[in-house]
Amino acid sequence: MDQGSGRDLTDLANAFLVPANSTHRQYEALRAYIVDKQPSAEVARRFGYTPGSFRVLCHEFRKNPDRTFFCSPKKPRSGRQRTRDMIVTLRKQNLSVYDIRTALAEEGEKLSVAAISKVLTDEGFARLPRRRDEERPSRTGPETAEVADARALDLSERSFRTKVGGLFLFLPYLTRIPLEDILAKTRFPGSKMVPASHAIRSLLAMKLFGSARHSHVMSHVFDEGLALFAGLNVIPKRSFLTEYSCRIRPAAYPAFMREWFDAVKRLGLRRGASLDLDFHTIPFHGEDALVQKHYVSKRSRRQKGVLAFLAQDSDSRLFCYANGDLRKEEQNDEILRFVEFWNESTGRLPEELVFDSKLTTYANLNRLNELGIKFITLRRRSDKMLKALDDLPQSAWRQIHLRNVTRAFSTPKVLDQQIDLRDYEGPVRQLSIRELGHDKPTLLLTNQHRRSPVTLIERYAQRMLIENGIADGIDFFHMDALSSAVAMKVNCDLQLTLMASSLYRLLGRELGEEYERAKSRHIFRDFIDASAFVNITPSEIVVRFQKRAHNPYLLDAGFDRKRTRVPWLGNRKLQLVFG
């Protein structure tokens, strides 16, 4: 008996005689067979082996009879652990997540930047400080362009090819708009290297050439034509574009909007009597407690985004007002702010406003009626309203014939009523319309009591076309680029959209009736999306376009006869030549 431990010697002997793990069992079985000379079958039975498996064990021992045979084998590292170790080793060499991703790819390990960042965070590594170029690993990278500087603009004699030749079709209009004076009056920021007018022309060029988002600006950084259009040696980088949009005061936009539309009005772009109003949600993909959720029509759901209010001329399809500084609690009254803006800009109230049911309230409809502004809008349908309409006899409905409407829906049935609304003083006219392409009746509200139902319904039947037109304009002018690589301020992006829209409308008006109301995308495809050869001489800038199917429209409009002096290009004359 061992008095110190308090345990029986028999128990201690069992630690040797009764194996507790597979390695100990292998040792005792082989010792009994090889040292004690016990029969193989008896040893196999005693230690729980089958005769065959024990023979295999003996064979393996004869092949490797050294002492490591009875050591527990080390578990090989998993592939995931090896990758983590490689990431840690590479970070200790001061490599960034992008450098680590490249190094792992060379070893056949493909891992995303997000996954690498997660590993480094779990391992307790902080973000690397910004490194100088000489501190970065040497590898193939993009060529670095010069810094944008209006003073470094090269107007020496030379020729070059540009992919954005169609932008020069807008220069005859821009030279007649006092952009420098407008920007100075509205206090837009600028510097000696990149004055305000050059910065705005750079941003406007990317907006006018609407086939790509702002995030693709770096692919055009070496296009001399794009820089020449803006009056710079090179187009500014996206970091400048982001920073510049943040420097503009929010109060400068309404003032600039008024001055800009006064200028394009003098060029012959008239504003119509009827305007279409709508909200558009610009999706926001990020974390910001101040960004509210709004309805996104193309996704049929509510999500975080910036709410923008837009007004479009129904005749010319010109965007004539925009406001992206809206909160959900302010959206119902935005229509009144637009009326005030329009009155200040034009000296008169808008004649007719067309919008859907969610744009404003009945109280604001009453305010429009008091101001003498005509409106057409939808009314939200309730089950009680629909039941009351269903209970009416068929004789109460009158069939009418609509023009410029799909043949299947050209003969709807109409019920013309005078009704009372909450918060609306006096009667308002309601047109209930059946068989207009919807399962349930459409309810129109208007304060135009003498206008025929046919005229009113035809006007609102354009609503779907208007919504599609607004959506097309937003998509073409890439206004949904809030989450792109260039983090543009929404109000800046909206202002550029208004400017680009008016320039496209000026061009379409001059090209003739076929293009006067054409979508901007249509005009871009036929005329703007064109490469050209640019030849700079001491007195002229000659832009020569290749032969294209639609050049006769430009020739008929007299673009080849225009000799426009461009002040920001050394006052040289611009000559457009069409092959």
DSSP strand (E) fraction?
Answer: 15-25%
Q: Which term fits the overall shape? A: extended
User: Helix count, per DSSP?
Assistant: 22
Kindly provide the name of the CATH class of the domain at 9-70.
Mainly Alpha
Q: Uncertain spans, ≥5 residues at pLDDT below 50?
A: 1-6, 481-485
Helical proportion? 25-40%
Second-tier CATH architecture of the domain at 9-70 = Orthogonal Bundle
- pLDDT average, as an integer? 83
Please identify the structural class as seen in this structure.
Answer: alpha+beta
Strand tally is 15
CATH fold-level name of the domain at 9-70: Arc Repressor Mutant, subunit A
Q: Outline the biggest β-sheet.
A: 10 strands, mixed
- The rounded distance between the terminal residues' Cα atoms is 114 Å
Q: Whole-number radius of gyration?
A: 38 Å
Write the topology of this structure.
Blueprint: H1 9-17, H2 22-34, H3 40-46, H4 51-63, H5 79-91, H6 97-106, H7 113-122, E1 158-162, H8 171-174, H9 179-185, H10 196-208, H11 224-230, H12 238-247, H13 252-266, E2 274-283, E3 293-296, E4 301-313, E5 319-323, H14 334-346, E6 352-354, H15 362-371, E7 374-378, H16 383-390, E8 398-399, E9 413-419, E10 428-434, E11 442-446, H17 453-461, H18 463-476, H19 490-511, H20 513-516, H21 520-528, E12 532-536, E13 540-545, H22 551-556, E14 564-566, E15 572-578
Parallel strand pairs: 2-6, 6-7, 13-15
Antiparallel strand pairs: 1-12, 2-4, 3-4, 4-5, 7-11, 8-9, 9-10, 10-11, 12-13, 14-15
Helix pairs in contact: 2-3, 3-4, 5-6, 10-11, 10-19, 13-14, 13-19
